[in-house]
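ingest -> fold -> write
write: protein_1
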Amino acid sequence: LQIRPLVAVHHQGLKTFSLPCVYRFLLVSFAIFSLYSVHLLLKTADEAGALVYESLGYKAFGIPGKLAASCSITMQNIGAMSSYLYIIKYELPIVIQSFTGANDGLRAAMTFCLSPLGYLGYTSGLSLLCMVFFLIVVIIKKFQIPCPLPLPDTGNETMNIITYNLCIFPSLQTAYAIPILTFAFMCHPTILPMYDELKDRSRRKMQNVANVSFLAMFIMYLLAALFGYLTFNIHVGPELLHTYSNYYKYDILLLVVRLAVLAAVTLTVPVVLFPIRTSVGHLLFPRKDFSWIRHAIITLTLLTGTNILVIFVPSIRDIFGFIGASAAAMLIFILPSAFYIKLVKKESMKSMKKIGATMFLILGFVVMIGCMSLIIYDWIVNSMKDKGH
């Protein structure tokens, strides 16, 4: 249920979450918010008799509701696929260099050769095992790396950039932390299809499935953040594996972890591509029969556009931030609460359940508008700094 965000957020590193108390509060809050959102979705689906996110949107608000749901799901999945390819972009050249001793020219060339990786086979179970292995290594390395930290093995100048104290800039870091966590717990479009396929399905049974899944991911996120922070403290970088590489350039265990992460994201990319392609096909060609030519064109267009995005976006944090503050906020906060308010007719607007859903809807708009405003402000400030203003 939660493989896709797990793969992406573990790699993001912990710089955004270097304030442990703040991170724990945000992690607990968004786990609860996500479970409440699942509850709203399941109850609305039962009341409306629709088990597809887009169908709920259509029943609630007609064509605009369907478009809002479809576009949000498409954006979310494009963001997920972009984040996985971004991981491949940064980790694959390092792995190749470790095996071949290749120079930077070959590394740059391999960075651009991303699209064939989306066609490899996949299994969700293997992806999960890879990320569990990643977490185990993070915990092991905490006890292997001495304190205080040794001098970096590499002359990487980024170490000078990532050692600043994040307490100086809490607002901008929070602006990224909130959408990243929203992105991390975002699996809601898959909830309804899974609910539809559940044998002897009931809302309670599906809610229990979601509870177990979110609890497992909560524990893994918390342990990764805790041990990553305890290992590097304020020196933790924007990409956790790269932070390890600053101190141990050629470490066999870290190389195996990189291979595991690459395997996990490679196996997951096709899983993300399928719903994007299906959603785009239904959105643009709702009444046309299946065509292999159209199918291939949509696939190539999506892969090309995503690879261009990955090549030119400077940081994976920008992808997490923008998608988390826009599409993920829509899918977790705004749409489920709006669907619930509109479609669950047997409860009055003065009931506690409807009041709770209304407050959740307002919170969604606050998260979206607030985070997007701070992220755009951060982009403007960084752009002015780059230009020397």
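write: protein_2
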Amino acid sequence: MLKKKIALNIRAYRKMCKLTQSELASRLKTSRQHISEIECCKRGLSIKMLEKIAKKLQVEPYQLLK
């Protein structure tokens, strides 16, 4: 349940920043596929990656958990 909430929040904040999955992936030095799998709940997320994503989306990590 938390995994799905985080995925939905990442997608929502990414769209608010007007970033594509490819653009976010490029900023994170990862693949678009990796971002897609996170947003579709097909891949887990480390705390470190959560922090990196939050930083690139200009939000605090806890905001992705709400």
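write: annotation protein_2
The chain has one domain: 2-64.
The helical segments are 2-16, 21-28, 32-39, 47-56.
pipeline exit 0
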